[in-house]
Design goal:
With 179 residues, the chain is an alpha/beta fold. The chain has a single domain (7-173), classed as Rossmann fold (3-Layer(aba) Sandwich). It contains seven helices and five strands; from the N terminus they run βαβααβαβααβα. The protein has a five-stranded parallel sheet, sandwiched between helices. α1 packs across α7 (163-173). The two termini are 21 Å apart. The structure holds shikimate-3-phosphate. Residues 18, 22, 41, 52, 86-88, 125-127 line the site of shikimate-3-phosphate (S3P).
Length: 179
């Protein structure tokens, strides 16, 4: 495979479902690796001045996905970052191509049970505001896990693990020139 960025400056990109800990772990990793941390949902909220739920309300999921693709293009326009993506950012073919081109991809592989524990009381995620969030998470798991696995340079199970340990473990497993 050919990369257009020197290996040691490539972004480290965290992918995985809602509640897998992408933001928490990304933040810790960025500090330890002395890299800038960016979170695509936060970036979108800052740029628009409203939260994700409001964007879904006004523009629907398609409108949000458009903003998400633009955010990824912006964030991946620079190197040397740790980037936490939204759970659905792997859906569009154009995003998949960009993610692969612009970074080393780490998949946080999380069970639906663990997601449920973390997201039980969540009010911020539009896709979970349904009568049966577990069923929704299971459906998303079945649809998206194969995509996460296909894109991942490194896949790591997150269940029953403390964020700091997990971040340290991921760093250990990164290629030497990214540490
Ligand atoms: C989504 C995940 C969310 C956010 C939006 C849609 C998804 O991000 O982008 O609510 O489609 O899985 P997190 O994965 O950070 O929760």
């Amino acid at each position: 495979m050919r990369y257009d960025t020197p290996m040691d400056q490539r972004n480290i990109i965290l992918i995985g479902p809602m509640g897998s800990g992408k933001s928490t772990i990304g933040n810790i990793m960025a500090k330890r690796l002395n890299r800038e941390f960016q979170d695509s949902d936060h970036y979108i909220e800052e740029r628009t001045g409203v939260d994700i739920a409001r964007i879904f309300d006004i523009e629907g999921e398609e409108g949000f996905r458009e903003r998400e693709s633009n955010a990824l293009r912006d964030l991946l326009g620079r190197n040397n970052r740790v980037i936490a993506t939204g759970g659905g950012s792997v859906l569009r073919a154009e995003n998949q191509k960009l993610l692969k081109q612009k970074g080393y991809i780490v998949f946080l592989d999380t069970s639906v049970n663990q997601q449920m524990q973390r997201l039980r009381r969540d009010k911020k995620r539009p896709l979970l505001q349904t009568d049966n969030p577990r069923e929704r998470l299971e459906k998303l798991f079945d649809e998206r896990r194969p995509i996460y696995l296909d894109l991942a340079d490194l896949a790591i199970k997150t269940d029953k693990r403390v964020a700091r340990r997990l971040a340290a473990d991921i760093i250990n497993r990164l290629p030497d020139n990214l540490k």
